């Protein structure tokens, strides 16, 4: 009986770490997306599909309205 319980004990930490990972992605993902969009010219993200490129990344786009 003890070996059966020990064999099933792995799922608790696995589930915990999956929930933590999901929560981090859920909260940090939108912040990263907003930061990325703030550094791109508007034409890059109003086109469909978005054409994001590292060549267009500039801090001057952060302040342009």
Helix and strand layout, with pairings?
Blueprint: H1 2-8, H2 11-38, H3 42-46, H4 60-63
Notes on the structure:
This protein has helices spanning 2-8, 11-38, 42-46, 60-63. The chain has one domain (2-63). It has 65 residues and is an all-alpha fold. The mean pLDDT is 80. The N and C termini lie far apart (66 Å).
Rg value: 21 Å
User: Could you state the order of secondary-structure elements as H and E?
Assistant: HHHH
Low-confidence stretches: none
Could you say how many structural domains there are in total? 1
- Helix segment tally: 4
**Tertiary shape:** rod-shaped
N-to-C CA distance? 66 Å
The average pLDDT value, as a whole number, equals 80
Q: Beta fraction of the residues? A: under 5%
Helix content: 55-70%
> Major β-sheet, in short?
none
- Secondary structure class reads mainly alpha
Give the strand tally. 0
Tags for this entry?
mainly alpha, 65 residues, single chain
Summarize it:
This protein has 65 residues and is mostly helical.
């Amino acid at each position: 009986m003890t070996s059966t319980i020990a064999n099933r004990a792995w799922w608790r930490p696995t589930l915990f770490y999956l929930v933590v990972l999901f929560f981090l992605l859920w909260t940090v993902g939108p912040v990263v997306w907003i930061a990325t969009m703030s550094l791109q010219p508007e034409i890059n993200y109003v086109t469909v599909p978005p054409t994001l490129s590292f060549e267009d990344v500039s801090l001057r786009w952060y302040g342009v309205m």
